[in-house]
Design goal:
This protein has 15 helices and 5 strands. The chain is of the alpha+beta class. A 5-stranded antiparallel β-sheet has the order 1-2-3-5-4.
Length: 328
């Protein structure tokens, strides 16, 4: 009996409290619920604020305020170009305000960026530049735009130097494109041929040296390093020492090859002759074949035959090393 009386008392009190609410509060609450359900959160917020403490108006307001907080955080991330994080926030409240539009915009940026990466990897730089420009601000799209612009600038400047006959400067700029931009690889090959007619520069010699061994399926390489102005000195992967000097324009005037006693121990006579033949061929990889040079090594060693304007002298130094010197 007491329990029944308590329930009746609570219900009566609730009815009295509801009865205390004004018609305006009730109307605002109902309009707030309707606006909330139709995703008009701005209007709903105003209605629930006007409804004050009526029923669960405060709960609705708290929910809307949480949406506003997430939206503000996502917008700040968007403005900071932190698009993946911003997208996560907007997706969590996709029905709030224009969140869905931001998600669609970020998706389009991502699509353009991915298309740019794909085009760049396929060396379609024109399309890559267009797509990265459309995705500016997304990930490292700006860096790609700058990188392609630099490639284009180097390429165009190299073409101009090539037309002017400044082959060394043109070669330097084309090589800065890694030989992958447009027809840079073909241009570099052509410049090697043109420069070889004038002489050979240290880094081109190293390239020809490596190519001579690669064509013969032999694993010997040189990694050029340091300033080659005036002189240079390198050590090949097999221990061969290469030293030379250049003129004021950078062309090699003298180059020597040392086979020290340790290296000589690993080679028989034919092996040492073949190694020197590679050294000679590298003075112009596009001239004679390695076999042709091998057949004439005695003439080269005696100094009675030149190769690409170089004469040769084979000698032995005080340490027992064999030294082949080429002089322009």
């Amino acid at each position: 009996m007491k329990k029944t009386v308590a329930i009746v008392f609570i219900l009566t009190l609730a009815l009295l409290l509801i009865g205390c609410a004004s018609n305006a509060q009730i109307q605002n609450y109902n309009k707030g619920v309707e606006a909330y359900n139709s995703k008009d959160f701005e209007a709903a917020k105003a209605y629930f604020e006007a409804a004050e403490d009526y029923l669960n108006s405060k709960s609705y307001l708290s929910a809307i305020q949480e949406y506003e907080r997430i939206y503000t955080d996502a917008l700040n991330l968007f403005n900071a170009h932190k698009y993946p994080e911003a997208k996560t926030g907007f997706e969590a409240i996709s029905e709030f305000g224009n969140s869905a539009e931001y998600v669609a915009f970020i998706d389009k940026l991502e699509q353009r960026y991915n298309e740019g990466v794909e085009a760049f990897e396929k060396q379609d730089y024109s399309l890559a530049y267009e797509r990265f420009t459309q995705a500016m601000g997304y990930n490292d799209a700006d860096e790609f735009v700058s990188r392609i612009s630099k490639l284009e600038s180097n390429y165009n400047n190299a073409l101009e130097f090539m037309k002017q006959g400044s082959y060394l400067r043109a070669l330097e700029l084309f090589e800065m494109t890694d030989g992958k931009y447009r027809d840079s690889a073909e241009r570099i090959e052509r410049l090697y041929e043109l420069i070889a007619k004038q002489g050979i520069i240290p880094r081109m010699y190293a390239e020809f040296f490596n190519r001579s061994f690669a064509l013969a399926n032999e694993d010997v390489t040189i990694t050029p390093s340091g300033d080659t102005s005036g002189s240079f000195a390198w050590k090949a992967s097999n221990g061969l020492i290469v030293m030379g000097s250049t003129d004021t324009e950078g062309y090699i005037t003298s180059i020597s090859f040392w086979m020290d006693r340790e290296l000589l121990k690993t080679l028989d006579e034919e092996g040492s002759t073949r190694l020197f033949a590679h050294c000679i061929q590298a003075l112009n990889i596009n001239s004679d074949s390695l076999d042709s040079i091998m057949e004439n090594m005695d003439y080269y060693f005696e100094g009675s035959r030149t190769y690409c304007g170089f004469s040769f002298l084979l000698d032995e130094d005080a340490s027992g090393a064999e030294v082949l010197t080429a002089e322009k």
